[in-house]
Amino acid sequence: MDAKIRLYVEHPLGVGQSVPLDRAQAHYLFGVMRQVVGRQVLLFNGIDGEWQAEVVEAGKRGGVLRCDTQRNVLQMPPDLWLMFAPIKKARTDFIVEKAAEMGARRIVPVMTAYTNSGRVQRDRLQAHAVEAAEQCGATFVPEVADAVKLDRLLHDWDKDRQIMFCDEALAGASSPDTLKDKRGAPWAILIGPEGGFSGDERARLQEFEQAHAVALGPRILRADTAAVAAMTVWQQVLGDWE
Ligand code: SAH
């Protein structure tokens, strides 16, 4: 039988490897998806690629799978971070889900001057990234970082990493062609909050050596739309869409 269900596990995967399931995974696989002993599922752990595995024990509170054959090797997305100012809960969830699907390697919530959302629940966002990876066929799961202030982020910046600074003040302008010059470098996309960037932040970023200010077309996009649009442009010009 063809394995359709994909499950992320935090366990080494290899030929003959037994993989224990926790209560939530057992509930999903046996309760919700109605899998039974003998059924095949696909497993990945973000490190060892994708494996076909067979259910060997199925219980209410746990279970065991046995790895059979490797179906895919690990495919790393390009070295792209998505940095965004958290917005309302459902829209933030959307951004994290789309970042995982679009092939971001790391997702960084950034607190800016006009960020008005409260605390970021990192674990919940990480679970959204896992779920997105499970359903889109990815073998890698981007890590959701702890929220960080923009000042601190820029202060500690790795000088090799370029920033695609999405600046709403440039809406309608044409974006520089120079992004292509940094092909192969590590990159990060920066998206502001609903209130946009403050004058001080914009000034700081304009002076920042690694930052390349770009426009995302002539209209002002909502932050969640802007995040997807920016990742699309980046993957097309510098990433793995070619
Ligand atoms: N309130 C602001 C808009 C913020 S939009 C205003 O009216 O000016 C939220 C974020 O999406 C922005 O900070 C920017 O990072 C990104 N964004 C939206 N539209 C954009 C565009 N046309 N060009 C570049 N970035 C854009």
Structural features, described:
The protein has helices at residues 23-32, 89-102, 122-136, 150-155, 199-207, 223-237; strands at 6-8, 18-21, 40-44, 50-58, 63-72, 80-84, 106-111, 143-144, 148-149, 162-166, 187-191, 211-214. The protein is 29% helix and 25% strand. The chain is elongated. The mean pLDDT is 96. With 242 residues, the chain is an alpha/beta fold. The protein folds into two domains: 6-72, Hypothetical PUA domain-like, domain 1 (Ribosomal Protein L25, Chain P, Beta Barrel), CATH 2.40.240.20; 80-237, 3-Layer(aba) Sandwich (Alpha/beta knot). Strands 6, 7, 8, 9, 10, 11 and 12 form a seven-stranded parallel β-sheet that branches. Strands 1-3-4-5-2 form a five-stranded mixed β-sheet. The site of S-adenosyl-L-homocysteine (SAH) has 19 residues, from helix 6. S-adenosyl-L-homocysteine (SAH) binds next to helix 6.
